[in-house]
């Protein structure tokens, strides 16, 4: 991808792909668009650390995400990349609800207070951002209200 985004003629010889000298257009507006690599395994996190600007793990649990973030940053260091310039952007496909959920709730799911508590557990792991895809959709007014409540809860957590 980065070869294609660079100046023409583009030429690339990799393990799986080859691009003969070619003109590849259109080019991105940004000089170097950031690459966000989705990964849910240690091997994927190591790959992201070697080649990507960010890792995007799915938040399966409060233990998996910090482990993947650590693996990602360690792999970046091993590849002689500065991990401080890389980002961890967690994806949470969860229900966001007005009322708290029970003990079997998913990690980063539930009421704004519950989600804020989970997010606080991610801070020491160096998570930069959490993207929530609400699996309990409401009308827009309720969604905005829940996000405002989450922001307030996360600020005080």
Number of helices: 5
Q: Mean pLDDT score, rounded?
A: 92
Fraction in helix: 25-40%
The neighbouring-strand order within the major sheet is 3-4-5-6
**SSE sequence, one letter per element:** HEEEHEHEHEH
How is the biggest beta sheet arranged?
A: 4 strands, parallel
Head-to-tail CA distance between termini:
40 Å
Can you offer a commentary on this structure?
The chain contains five helices and six strands. By secondary structure, the protein is α/β, with parallel strands linked by helices. The chain has two domains: 1-33, no CATH class; 34-156, Alpha-Beta Barrel (TIM Barrel). The strands form two sheets. Strands 3-4-5-6 form a four-stranded parallel β-sheet. Helix 2 (42-51) links the parallel strand 3 and strand 4. The chain starts with a helix and ends with a helix. The model has no long low-confidence stretch (mean pLDDT 92).
């Amino acid at each position: 991808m980065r070869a294609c985004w660079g100046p023409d003629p583009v030429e690339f010889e990799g393990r799986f792909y080859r691009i003969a000298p070619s003109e590849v257009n259109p080019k991105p507006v940004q000089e170097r668009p950031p690459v966000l690599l989705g990964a849910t395994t240690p091997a994927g996190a190591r790959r992201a650390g070697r080649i990507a600007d960010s890792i995007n793990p799915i938040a399966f649990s409060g233990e998996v995400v910090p482990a993947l973030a650590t693996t990602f940053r360690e792999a970046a260091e091993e590849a002689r990349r500065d991990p401080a310039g890389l980002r961890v952007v967690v994806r949470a496909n969860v229900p966001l609800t007005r009322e708290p959920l029970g003990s079997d709730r998913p990690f980063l799911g539930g009421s704004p207070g519950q989600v804020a508590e989970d997010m606080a557990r991610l801070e020491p792991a160096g998570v930069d951002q959490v993207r929530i895809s609400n699996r309990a959709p409401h009308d827009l007014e309720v969604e905005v209200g829940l996000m405002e409540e989450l922001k307030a809860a996360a600020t005080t957590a």
